[in-house]
Each structure stands twice: as C-alpha cells, then as structure tokens.
Amino acid sequence: MKNKIKVAPSILAADFSKIYDEVKKVEKANADAIHIDIMDGHFVPNISIGPQMVAAINRSTDLFLDVHLMIYNPFDYIEKFVEVGADLITFHFEATEDVEDTINYIKKCGKKVGLAFNPETSFSLATKYLEKLDLVLFMSVHPGFGRQKFIPSVLEKIELAKNLKKDLKLDFDIQVDGGIDIVTASRCINKGANFLVAGTYLFSQKDMIESVKKLKNC
Ligand code: DX5
Ligand code: ZN
User: Fold this and answer.
1) Per residue in 75-104, pLDDT tens?
2) Which domains does the chain have, with CATH numbers?
3) Which partner from 34, 74, 192, 213 sits 20 to 30 angstroms from 114, CA to CA?
C-alpha cells in the first residue's frame, strides 16, 4: 500500500501582517500540521519568532503544531514550547551535545520528538537514537531562510533512513524541509519521505487546498 503523505505548510512563508488568516488558510487546506520555524540568530544566521507567536498560532487553531527549533541549547527551551502548545518538537543534532537528554525530556513532557539534520551532517551518526524518535527531519536547504534551492544530496539520506526504518522495524516519520515543490516532493517521496514541509511553494499558490492535494498525490 502507498504510504500516506503528510504535508505541513511552513508559516515562515506566510504574511505575518495577517497571521490569523494565514493560519486559517492552512487549516482549510487540509494540511496535517503547521510547521513553525524558530531561529535564534546563532545556530542559524537569522532570527524568526519565539514562544509568544507560537502561543498566538495555538490560540488560532487546533492544527497539529510542528515546531522546528533551529537554536542552540534546545533543552533549555523545551518547557517554554510545551507550554505554548507544541505537539511535536524537532531539534537539530548539531545544536547540542545532549541529544539523548533532550529527546528524553521532550518525551517526558508527553510530546512527539523529532531530530533534524543539516545537509552536510551524516545521518549514520545518529542511528542509535532512532528507536526513540517519532520523526527524522532532513534539511534539503541550509537552515535559516525560506526560498532556497533544493539540495539533491538529501535524497541519499532519505533512502538510508527508509532502509533503516524497514530493517529495524521502526515507525518514525521521514520529513524533508526546504525547496519543496511538486517536482522535488516527488523525488523525496520516491526515496521514502512521507512528511513534506513546504513554505514558499504553498504560500505562493492561489489555491492552497489544491496545492496541498497535489503534494500529497505526487
Ligand atoms: C528553513 C526552514 C524551512 C523553510 C522552508 O530554514 O526550516 O521550514 O520555511 O521554506 P521553503 O519551502 O521556502 O524552502
Ligand atoms: Zn523548518
């Protein structure tokens, strides 16, 4: 049976002057989650939004909140993001020496946990954590900004994760984030990704309902 594809529009590409309407648009488009990028200006060369904005998004919708932390010391901020309604907290493998403790604490808070990998980071470094994870996120651009071009070397990592998932009989989602459109989405799905994050592509289309459908079926 074909794996069900999940789609999370990335709020980074939304018009922040009308954030409530943008969240409602995502809701109406039958998206599976809303992807929220948190950047600290240190781990990545950009600053985005913080817990207060996540709380505002949470008040606007019942959508699943997929929080992508691009920050150093993610452990120190878990409670904050749990408090404001995160359903899934994904942090970067490169951002902390306490990967294990951070995974454990997110789980202890009753939330789903994801581990993210930059394009140049080898995924094989992290296989020992796999059985505790709900999701593995492969960056297909250098994190920090939307509107970048898809980096095709991510496809090998997706395939490796798919094979490991099968061999170890695990059940984590394989998410891909950055430069996703109809063409790149289908390349990722073919290799085993089942969760697509798309910012620019989805927010630049006239009809997000149609575009989410297209991504799910490509
Ligand atoms: C990049 C972010 C992405 C970004 C994707 O650092 O993690 O979630 O919003 O944007 P697009 O789809 O425009 O590449
Ligand atoms: Zn992201």
Assistant:
1) 999 999 999 999 999 999 999 999 999 999
2) 6-216 (3.20.20.70)
3) 213
